[in-house]
């Protein structure tokens, strides 16, 4: 999610503040401050209301039925977001494709190497 936010912020610098805020908040999602119509975050980390885990041992006790319920509950929200974002006109579809291609261009291997890998190597050499 952070990578997508940084890529979107490179396309629109006004989004940089939201991307920086995400780096501070581990629970931030794209829907919580960054409007990227090509991306839906399906959050399978947060439990539905009424479920809690106090310890790793509690997590080990989750059975298939509970996992399936959590997946279904969280998938429903993602599916609703996807449906709401489907283009209704050819022009809207064209805009979505263009913005998706621009976003993908900011997430290429060239960008990963230039922005993350090479600086990481330089930092490791120090």
Short characterization:
By secondary structure, the protein is mainly alpha-helical. It has six helices and no strands.
Core attributes:
single chain; mainly alpha; 6 helices; 63% helix
Query: SSE string, helix = H, strand = E?
Result: HHHHHH
The end-to-end span amounts to: 29 Å
Q: Can you count the helices?
A: 6
SS-based structural class? mainly alpha
Helix content: 55-70%
Largest sheet: none
Shape: flat
| Unreliable stretches | 22-32
Cα gyration radius (Å): 18 Å
Q: How many E-type strands?
A: 0
Question: Mean pLDDT across all residues, rounded?
Answer: 81
Percent in strands: under 5%
Structure in words:
By secondary structure, the chain is mostly helical. The protein is 63% helix and 0% strand. The protein has helices spanning 2-11, 16-24, 56-60, 64-85, 90-105, 109-125. The longest helix has 22 residues, at 64-85. It starts with a helix and ends with a helix.
Break the fold down into its secondary structure elements and pairings.
Layout: H1 2-11, H2 16-24, H3 56-60, H4 64-85, H5 90-105, H6 109-125
């Amino acid at each position: 999610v952070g990578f997508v936010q940084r890529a979107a912020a490179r396309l629109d610098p006004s989004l940089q503040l939201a991307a920086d805020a995400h780096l501070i908040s581990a629970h931030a999602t794209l829907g919580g401050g960054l409007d990227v119509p090509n991306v839906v975050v399906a959050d399978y980390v947060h439990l539905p209301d009424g479920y809690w885990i106090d310890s790793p041992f509690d997590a080990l006790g989750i059975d298939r039925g509970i996992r399936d319920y959590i997946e279904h509950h969280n998938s429903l929200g993602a599916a609703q977001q996807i449906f709401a974002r489907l283009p209704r006109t050819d022009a809207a579809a064209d805009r979505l494709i263009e913005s998706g291609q621009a976003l993908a261009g900011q997430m290429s291997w060239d960008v990963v190497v230039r922005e993350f890998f090479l600086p990481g190597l330089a930092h490791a050499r120090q």
